[in-house]
């Protein structure tokens, strides 16, 4: 069974690329971030024609998360218990479309089902912005939700765009980030991310692709991709019981090439 995560940066704008990628890779499950659409303009047919069930959580042209599965999609949860609300300057706070989860693998006889989360962690915007405080609250609440009842037999994967580069090798120029006081690398953000690892969740890709320049994101501006000035901010964190079943995992860097790519690329895992 193959499952993947991908921040597509507008699903409608990149529907053809998503369709082609699913066909080429034969992925069984895809978690998607930044769909940037409501249910009424979500491209349901794209997935249904290819045999996927889909659950989508989106309110507007911002955010939006989804899970597409052809191996079962059960017990869908939109958001998560304790998810913090956000409203700029405290105005009209609401739960944003940044998290969706479901049980997958129920139709795959050679794989034990597991709980799969599609996550779009808040960006933070700047170290002093109120969105940074929201980002940290979001990560802490998610940590509590996922790890409070974890056991040795828990099978769960947290996938998506974390908007955190937890180690220095995860950015192309750490000195630049420090000098300019940029987000994604601050100690509070990294501490919040590493808390998931401290709780036992495993980054299933890094051991197979260690070291610098294993990025998942390149900004559109300043020729970041041709210069390979990227960041590693998209992850699959799995509970140990699930991580033990992973036989391979990789970053599909090729998907950043060509016409009209997302600024992120898929991160993929193989079970069994």
Account of the protein in words:
The chain has helices at residues 15-25, 44-48, 130-147, 174-179, 187-198, 240-243, and strands at residues 2-7, 29-33, 53-57, 65-69, 73-78, 99-104, 114-120, 156-161, 202-203, 234-238, 246-251, 267-271. It has one domain: Endonuclease/exonuclease/phosphatase (Deoxyribonuclease I, Chain A), CATH 3.60.10.10. It has 272 residues and is an alpha+beta fold. The radius of gyration is 17 Å and the shape is globular.
How would you summarize the topology of this molecule?
Elements: E1 2-7, H1 15-25, E2 29-33, H2 44-48, E3 53-57, E4 65-69, E5 73-78, E6 99-104, E7 114-120, H3 130-147, E8 156-161, H4 174-179, H5 187-198, E9 202-203, E10 234-238, H6 240-243, E11 246-251, E12 267-271
Parallel strand pairs: 1-2, 7-8
Antiparallel strand pairs: 1-12, 2-4, 3-4, 5-6, 6-7, 8-10, 9-10, 11-12
Helix pairs in contact: 3-5
What are the main properties of this structure?
single chain; 272 residues; alpha+beta; Deoxyribonuclease I, Chain A; 6-stranded mixed beta sheet; globular
Mean pLDDT: 96
The CATH topology name reads Deoxyribonuclease I, Chain A
Measured as a percent range, the helix fraction is 10-25%
Structural class: alpha+beta
Pattern of helices and strands: EHEHEEEEEHEHHEEHEE
In DSSP terms, counting alpha (H) and pi (I) runs of 4 or more, how many helices?
6
The fraction of residues in strands falls at 15-25%
The Rg value, from CA coordinates, equals: 17 Å
The level-1 CATH class: Alpha Beta
Task: Indicate how many domains the architecture comprises.
Answer: 1
How many β-strand stretches?
12
Q: Enumerate the strands of the largest sheet in spatial order, edge to edge or round the barrel.
A: 3-4-2-1-12-11
Major sheet description: 6 strands, mixed
**Termini separation (Å)?**
7 Å
Instruction: Name the quaternary structure.
Output: single chain
Uncertain segments of ≥5 residues (pLDDT<50)?
none
Judging by the overall fold, what is the CATH architecture? 4-Layer Sandwich
């Amino acid at each position: 069974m193959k499952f993947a995560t991908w921040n597509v940066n507008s699903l409608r704008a990149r529907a053809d690329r998503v369709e082609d990628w699913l066909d080429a890779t034969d992925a069984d499950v895809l978690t998607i971030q930044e769909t940037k659409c409501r249910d009424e303009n979500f491209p349901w047919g794209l997935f249904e024609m290819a045999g996927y069930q889909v659950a989508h959580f989106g309110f507007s042209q911002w955010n939006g998360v989804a899970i597409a599965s052809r191996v079962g999609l059960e017990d869908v949860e939109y958001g998560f218990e304790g998810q913090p609300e956000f409203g700029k300057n405290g105005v009209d706070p609401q739960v944003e479309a940044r998290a969706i989860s479901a049980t997958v693998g129920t139709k795959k006889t050679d794989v034990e089902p597991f709980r799969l989360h599609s996550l779009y962690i808040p960006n933070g915007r700047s170290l002093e912005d109120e969105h940074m405080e929201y980002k940290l609250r979001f990560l802490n609440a998610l940590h509590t939700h996922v790890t409070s009842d974890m056991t040795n037999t828990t099978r769960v994967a947290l996938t998506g765009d974390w908007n955190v580069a937890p180690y220095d090798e995860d950015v192309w120029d750490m000195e630049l980030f420090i000098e300019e006081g940029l987000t994604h690398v601050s100690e509070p953000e990294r501490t919040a991310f590493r808390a998931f690892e401290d709780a036992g969740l495993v980054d299933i890709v890094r051991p197979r692709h260690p070291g610098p320049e294993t990025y998942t994101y390149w900004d559109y501006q300043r020729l970041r991709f041709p210069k390979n000035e990227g960041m590693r901010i998209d992850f699959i964190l799995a509970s140990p019981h699930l991580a033990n079943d992973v036989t391979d995992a990789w970053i599909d860097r090729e998907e950043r090439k060509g016409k009209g790519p997302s600024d992120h690329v898929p991160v993929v895992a193989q079970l069994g």
